[in-house]
Queue: 3 jobs
Job 1
Amino acid sequence: MWSEYGARKDSKSIQLAFEIAKLGLKGDQTITITLPNKINEETIKAEVNLMEQIRKNYSDREILFEYIVDLDAFPEYEKQEEKKTFTPVDKLRLLTQKNPILQDLIDKFDLKIDK
């Protein structure tokens, strides 16, 4: 039911979230859904129709859903580094390292960075 539901969705991001989710049982009434990040968690949580469908199929029990965000459970995923905010000076330094001709233009036209 889970993978079929995800495959029927038009959105590739929803399909991917359903494909990578790891399902488990905790006791008799809790389905655990382990995901690599909060974005996938929110994507799955938004699919309330599926959650209601699961509850209907198991009407004799009160089914609960527990969402677990655990990047370590997905070793195939790369941890993304936080993006650092660069100052204009840092940005210029990076650009001139990548393209040294830029430094020639700065020198030739006596350009300065606003601070």
Job 2
Amino acid sequence: MTAKKPTTNEWGLNPDFIYRKFDPITLNVIGLGPSQVNEAIKRGELPPTVSVTESGRATGWLGSQLIELQRKRLAKAIERAAAAVRKDRSSTTTTT
């Protein structure tokens, strides 16, 4: 019997897998260090974590949450880049 390969997306994340809060993979996806992760959660920039164990000591996010976070970040980055291009074009056309 062959084990089924987990489904992953363009970021290599399985939407149904729980990624622990301070796992190197999770920190790499989020792009923040451990103390920055906690601060981002407090500020509402990251969704609250889910408990992985009954004790609640191990926490993390579903892969689907991290995927959605990356999609939102990408959309914001594209919008910022588009706004910069629009600003650059408007300053070029008004000075010529």
Job 3
Amino acid sequence: METVVLQTSNHEDTEMLLLLARRLNCNAFQSMEESIKVPIEVLQNQHLSIQKLQLEFSMYLYEKNLITLEQGCKLSNFDILGFQKELGKRKIPMHYDVSDFDQDIQTLKKLNRI
């Protein structure tokens, strides 16, 4: 059986990908150490391309606050604007709070921008 292998950096990432697989009703995903094997037929049955699967993983992990915006962009192969637009389409809020705002203000002051 032909498969696509998604490498992960650690066991926790592998577990998160398996949780997402369940969310997508793709119970054919298999954990193999620090990777996930996805049978090609699962992708075809779900009408998912590899790019769409990467986007789904990145959106899910970002929504759960498990990855940063930058990591989500890298994982999905989107630029920051494209990733933010996709978050907006899905009504996933940005992870930006008062402390982030305060840090941005401090940075702008250091740069003499305000």
